[in-house]
Every structure is written in C-alpha cells, then in structure tokens.
Design goal:
It contains three helices and two strands, in the order H-H-H-E-E. With 95 residues, the chain is mostly helical. 38% of the residues lie in helices and 4% in strands. It has a two-stranded antiparallel ribbon with strand order 1-2. It has a domain at 5-43. It starts with a helix and ends in a 7-residue tail after the last strand. The chain has helices at 5-14, 24-43, 73-78, and strands spanning 83-84, 87-88. Helix 1 (5-14) packs across helix 2 (24-43).
Length: 95
C-alpha cells in the first residue's frame, strides 16, 4: 500500500501532529513500508502454529506465599480522621 503526501498530511492532522512540509515524502515512504510489512504479516499462514504464553519454554520462578508483615489495621485506623465498621470514610467527591 502506498500513501501519498496528502494522506500523510491528513493522518498528521487527525493525530494532531505537526510535521514539516519537506518531511512528508519521507513519512509517506516509511508509513507505506510499515503498512506493507503488516500486509505481509497478515498473509502469513499461522493456522498450524500453537499459541505461546512466552517465547522461552521456561517455568516462572515464584516466591513462597508467606506473610512478611504483621497486621497493623487497628494502629492505622486509630489515627484516621473517620472510620466506620472497619472502613475508612472519605469526603464525597462525585455528585
């Protein structure tokens, strides 16, 4: 797909980008090359390729799920301006 300089100007306007007049031809060429690459990638037959969660066939190392801090809820709520039923009350900001 080949883009013209006018199409590049329209795309730049819609994206609210300011581009120099002398650069529009270079942008048109670069964008056309990108669109051609996307077309080639879209035409690639991938029906037999299995989806992968990660490009490397490795297991993720996980840390043990252990408690690292003590519950200090009462301490924090004792200095809160307003609480009710164990919840922090905050001013209403949306009408």
């Amino acid at each position: 797909m080949s883009l013209s300089a006018d199409e590049v100007k329209k795309i730049a306007y819609l994206a609210r980008l300011g581009i120099d007049e002398q650069d529009t031809d270079a942008y048109a060429k670069d964008l056309s090359n990108m669109l051609d690459l996307m077309t080639q990638m879209g035409d690639t037959f991938t029906d037999t390729v299995q989806p992968m969660a990660h490009p490397m066939d490795q297991m993720q190392r996980l840390r043990p799920d252990t408690v690292s801090e003590h519950n200090q809820r009462e301490n924090f709520q004792s200095i809160a301006p307003q609480i009710e039923a164990g919840l922090y009350l905050v001013p209403k900001v949306i009408d």
